[in-house]
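User: Some background: our group keeps a shared notebook of sequences we're curious about, and every so often someone picks one and asks for a predicted structure to add to the entry. Today it's my turn. The entry only has the sequence so far, pasted here. Could you supply the structure so I can complete it?
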Amino acid sequence: MRRYSTSSRPGFTLTELMVSLALIVFIMSIMATAFGAASKVVTDLRAANDLAERLRGAMTLMRNDLKNQHLDNTARRLSDTTWPPSAANNQGFFRIYQVGRPIDIGPAGADQTSIMTSAALHFTTKLSGLYSTDFFSTDLQSRILPTTPVRENQLVSITGNQQANVEMERSYQRTQGTEFRSQWAEVAWWLAPQNGIFTTPDAASGSPAQQLYTLRRRQRLLYDRATPSQVSLPWVALTDPSMRRQHRDVSIAPYNLTALAGTDFKVNTPSDVTVPAMRFGSPTIPANLVPPNSPSPATSLPLSNVYAGLPLNPDDPYGSGMDINDDVPDIVLGDVLSMDIRILLDSKKAFIDLGHPDVQIYRTGNPAFNPGTHPRGLYVFDTWTRQNFGQLDYTNPESQPLERWRTPGTYSCVPLYRQVDGTGNYIGSPILIRAIQVTLRIWDEKSNFTRQVTMIQEL
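Assistant: Of course. Here's the predicted structure to add to the notebook entry:
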């Protein structure tokens, strides 16, 4: 008979098993926390990268607009000492619009920042080159032809030596189709509120909920051709106000600033849009553009952002109304917190906003832009005009000690030009803007992060 040992095999006790299980759970919790932290870091980095990519695309588009030529075919710059021009046929404009001044809202994220939502840029931009990519283009629902009905629906006959104008027209429109091309365009950048959409308040940093905006860009093509006075080329007769929607990507305006008769409109040239009333987002014509030699005092100014739709609708400055779907091509960026615009003067080393005292000395004594009477502050820089449109003759604004530019009583006037003494005589040099600084700030909903980027462009 075989005998077997009765000794037990060695093993873990219950206490040892419980301790080992606790260690396993503890190690797994550490690993889970580490993986969670790593996942959050990756998510935050992805959110920061997405914000940076969104900002980069918007700022690249804006920089391309700003670095192009803005004034005249001679490539005159805002920083030139010859500004403003002495000739009456200058082309293009540059406008900076600002309501109020930047305000600090306390820390947001890791940086102390200011919120500015009522600033806008509006200017002409010109491409150069000979290739198709060197032209702005848009597809119209109907062609703009030299024989388009004009005032009172009369047809213009183009014959003989005026046939050259038809040939010039072909450089802007293909023989077939409805594509319209031009190297000149007026471009506006502004913020429009996203109704009912705000950031998430952050109790830890003290950041309150902030209104969010969309960054908008509106581009309207100009017709860069001087035509004989006897040929109304290229007038666009719009018998139905809704027809203006068909030409929303072309800069059009009433044929006459002083008598808006019927519904006849023309395609603007770079020379036309030197007059503020001819541009996109401008007030109804001619009620808000005072004759240059009017003795009337400046009137109260609107205190809201005209480009954001108050008190005027920039999507249709002539009041016919626009389909909301037409706004989609204008949206460049969403969830924007602020757009801060500042300028660098010729004699300064820091970028400052239009409300800064160093800028306000150039408002030529215009009472409508006196911060004491308009505490919310409307500040506008505009290259203005030297055109003659009937009774609106601005060809020689410096012909009198009290220059004509300070007479118009609306935001269409130019408050920033040159210092004057107590009698209204000019002193010192005109304002010279060397460069512009634009700071955009956007927010990410998932991470509750904000990110901003600053662009500087010489003018």
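Suggested note for the entry: The radius of gyration is 30 Å. Residues 15-134+183-225+268-458 form one domain.
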